[in-house]
Specification:
This protein has about 190 residues and is mainly α. The chain has one domain. Helix 4 packs antiparallel against helix 5. The longest helix is centred in the last third of the chain and has 60 residues. The relative contact order is 0.18.
Length: about 190
């Protein structure tokens, strides 16, 4: 194979790869923006506010995680994760005596006349549902952040491939049309 043909193929392949990386970076940027906007919009519509610093956040299971957001409205995934895992989960544990919704529900089915237990089941169901929804917001927010990092990587990769392709085209002009691939390697002697 002629060296010039081989270099032209590699250089053209580099341009194609740069274009694919640019498109990928654009799609990842769009995904990151879309997810971030959706998480913020959905959370802000719920009008959830963190409690102010004080008695409610004095617990060592709550305070260190929520005090940095004290009084703020929940609008992002990190806030949703903190509220779900360090506010709702702690209160659910206290109200349910350390039992999950499934465990409380099983106990309530075994004792259908216990109204206090039925109230605990209802509270656990509502709390676990809200907690799960907030943790989904956290998961989507995290995916959006990962997409943003991927977009940066794709754009950097596209820039590197574009630069290498341009250098390849410059090198292509200097290669002799008659040069064969590997012709500069000395033949092996026996």
């Amino acid at each position: 194979m002629r060296r010039k043909t081989f270099d032209a193929l590699l250089t053209s392949g580099g341009l194609v790869l740069a274009a694919i990386l640019l498109i990928s970076g654009g799609l990842l940027t769009w995904a990151s923006s879309f997810v971030g906007d959706q998480v913020q919009t959905q959370l802000s519509q719920q009008q959830i506010f963190f409690p102010p610093q004080g008695k409610a956040t004095a617990s060592p299971e709550i305070g260190p995680f929520l005090n940095k957001y004290a009084g703020q409205q929940m609008v992002n995934g990190q806030q949703a994760e903190a509220y779900a895992n360090h506010f709702i989960a702690v209160h659910l544990k206290e109200s349910g005596g350390g039992l999950t919704y499934a465990q409380l529900s099983n106990k309530a089915r075994a004792n259908p006349t216990d109204t206090k237990l039925a109230e605990q089941v209802a509270t656990a169901f509502k709390g676990e549902t809200l907690r799960g929804l907030l943790l989904n917001a956290y998961a989507f927010d995290t995916m959006g952040r990962i997409a943003a990092i991927g977009a940066i990587g794709a754009f950097v990769g596209a820039g590197v491939m574009l630069l290498l392709s341009l250098l390849g085209f410059a090198h292509l002009r200097r290669v002799s049309p008659e040069a064969e691939l590997g012709s500069h390697i000395a033949p092996a002697t026996a």
